[in-house]
């Protein structure tokens, strides 16, 4: 995912339109049990802003994972806006993460970092997914087993307590 920046680094104010539809390299395309093996649609501009490069773009892709509750394979779309400043290697300070050096800018890491920031904490096939029965392991979306309502109520009680506590702490 390299971009030739040789033309715009010479001229302040110069900008470059970027469009591609490309896959993230396999070595970087997995995180948190999600696989980003579909092409990423990336549209935006890269501008030389006083020697720093300003990247503004929209990106859109589909990733695969397993539902955190029922373990069924699932696919989700993720779309987001990217806005990053990229500095030259010799001007880089500790808090400036993205650096360009030479003729090419590799935006693979920028793309992946931005996706991970937006990734939902939980992968759910649907918000109402009932998950697996903790006793028999059946998929409760597909059938209702007879393992007992007692357990289900107990789990629900624990969740309720967590929400109550977090509510108090937040105030
Ligand atoms: Zn599910
Ligand atoms: Zn069961």
List each distinct ligand once.
zinc ion
The number of distinct β-strands equals 9
Structural class comes to: alpha+beta
- Helix-strand pattern: EEEEEEEEEHH
Largest sheet: 5 strands, mixed
Side-by-side strand order of the widest sheet:
2-5-6-7-8
Overall radius of gyration: 22 Å
> Whole-Å distance between the termini?
45 Å
Uncertain regions: pLDDT < 50 for 5+ in a row?
167-171
Described by the principal axes of the CA atoms, the overall outline is elongated
Number of domains: 2
Average pLDDT figure: 86
Percentage of residues in strands = 35-45%
Report the helical percentage. 10-25%
Helix tally equals 2
Account of the protein in words:
- By secondary structure, this protein is an alpha+beta fold.
- The chain contains 2 helices and 9 strands.
- It is elongated, with a radius of gyration of 22 Å.
- 13% of the residues are buried.
Brief write-up:
This protein is of the alpha+beta class and 171 residues long. It has helices spanning 108-118, 149-169, and strands spanning 2-4, 15-22, 30-31, 34-35, 40-49, 52-66, 73-88, 99-100, 104-106.
